[in-house]
Amino acid sequence: MAIERTFSIVKPDAVAKNVIGKIYSRFEEAGLRIVASKMLQLSREQAGEFYAVHKERPFYNDLVDFMTSGPVMVQVLEGENAIAKNREVMGATNPKDAAPGTIRADFAETVDENAVHGSDAPETAKVEIDFFFPEGVCERLR
Ligand code: RTP
Ligand code: MG
Q1: The whole model's pTM is what?
Q2: Smallest CA separation from ligand 1 atom 1, residue
Q3: pLDDT digits over 130-140, tens only?
Q4: Is 54 designated active site?
Q5: Quick check: helix, strand or coil at residue 4?
Q6: Distance CA 18, CA 129 (A)
Q7: Any idea where this protein resides (predicted)?
Q8: Is the ipTM of this complex over 0.85?
Q9: Which three-class secondary structure state does DSSP give residue 7?
Q10: CB of residue 111 inside a 6 A radius of ligand 1
């Protein structure tokens, strides 16, 4: 299995709860390396474009409100099978369905405010990394 990169967000609820470090530890414990990272405040344009795939869904406006409600951490994670591994570590979209020990089970309360985002496929990972890190991401460090 080749080394892969995926895009991740620590959402405003988790930043407000002061658990960025705890969530980063979950990534590291799963063998994912943080190879780029920054804190930023999403504009409505950025959040709307990022979640454009959900534009017709009933929760879209609430999702944009939530994602712009405070700062987020955005990061690129690298590792074997990183996209699937990150989704595994995150847990199910609804924290009530998330397996014990996953980030959403441990740090999220509701499906609307669910602590983290992770890319769901190689194509979306590439688009999302380029969207948030247009300046580029370092080559492998080792
Ligand atoms: P994400 O894109 O944030 O990583 O989450 P996901 O793949 O697990 O879930 P997705 O279906 O892509 O939904 C994106 C985000 O929209 C919010 N959502 N709310 N109220 C609802 O029924 C509902 N469903 C989805 C969540 O914040 C979800 O993470
Ligand atoms: Mg998604």
Answers
A1: 0.96
A2: 117
A3: 999 999 998 86
A4: no
A5: strand
A6: 24
A7: Cytoplasm
A8: yes
A9: strand
A10: yes
